Amino acid sequence: MKSLRRMLRDRALLTGLVIVTLLVLAAVFASPLSTFPEHVTSFDPSQRLKPPGERFWLGTDRMGADIYSRLLFGARLTILVAVVATTFAVVIGVPIGLVAGYYRNWFSDLLMRVSDVFLAVPQIVLAIAIAQTLGPAIQNVILALSVTYWPFWARLVYAETRSLRNEVFIEAAIAMGASPLRVMVLHVVPSIASSIIVRTTIGMGATILAAASLGFLGLGAPPPAPEWGRMIAESREFLPDAWWYATAPGVAILLVVMGFNLLGDGLRDVLDPRIRRGGQRGG
């Protein structure tokens, strides 16, 4: 109850939660909310580059498609990439960090050196290289982001596990004959769950931004998929006259990434007992 009250007083957390909730609702109810759902796969060249108005709320693109409708359906792609890629990164990174942090031997050192190799290369550069090699497709974007983002979770879990390794309750569990797997799953993971949740929430925003960057470079979902990054790329030749073309998906990306960052920052303040700032924000 105390954590819930802190969450309700945290304006940043509530703002992020509202934005993320709106994104999910837009994705789930894209069909009934869109004004021209058929414009996701078909186009009307006669309505090419119409400015925002009563019929086309956010204007139309170079093919005459309604940008508002395509943004709504693009939210589905955004959530798909963010959830699946982040889940894979967590599934890969958390066990690696647990094993490397719990044991103190050459194998744990090897795991961390492998993660260091991945972290030595800028993640977006590595993701571009992988996506370029595999070709433009949504599943390739997910694979590229999963492969490049797991070291962040591995490093986090490694550091948290190392700090807990000598705690009394861990040593007591070992002394009572608990196996390493039992200690890691039943004692270590619950103790660091808040850090994993916060990292995952913020990582969703980073994943969406990276996916949009790949789409901007033509490495995301191929046309006619309503991918936000590709929509911005297609609008470049029509700027500044068709300003709405780039503005709508750009603002959507900005708000969604900001929403996940605010949500993660708020969750960190609420869930991490080590953080004390002399009072809750927004209280």
Automatic annotation (TrEMBL):
SUPFAM superfamilies listed in its UniProt record: MetI-like (SSF161098)
Main location: membrane
GO CC field: plasma membrane
Gene3D superfamilies, sorted: MetI-like
Spans traversing the lipid bilayer: 79-103, 110-131, 137-156, 196-221, 242-263
Membrane topology: Multi-pass membrane protein
GO biological process, one term: peptide transport
Subcellular location: Cell membrane
InterPro entries found in the cross-reference section: BP-dependent_transpt_permease, MetI-like, MetI-like_sf, OppC_N
Keywords: Cell membrane, Membrane, Peptide transport, Protein transport, Transmembrane, Transmembrane helix, Transport
Domain ABC transmembrane type-1: 75-264
Entry's family note: Belongs to the binding-protein-dependent transport system permease family.
Entry-linked PANTHER family: D,D-DIPEPTIDE TRANSPORT SYSTEM PERMEASE PROTEIN DDPC-RELATED, OLIGOPEPTIDE TRANSPORT SYSTEM PERMEASE PROTEIN APPC
This protein's name: ABC transporter permease
Organism expressing this protein natively: Limobrevibacterium gyesilva
Organism lineage string: Bacteria, Pseudomonadati, Pseudomonadota, Alphaproteobacteria, Acetobacterales
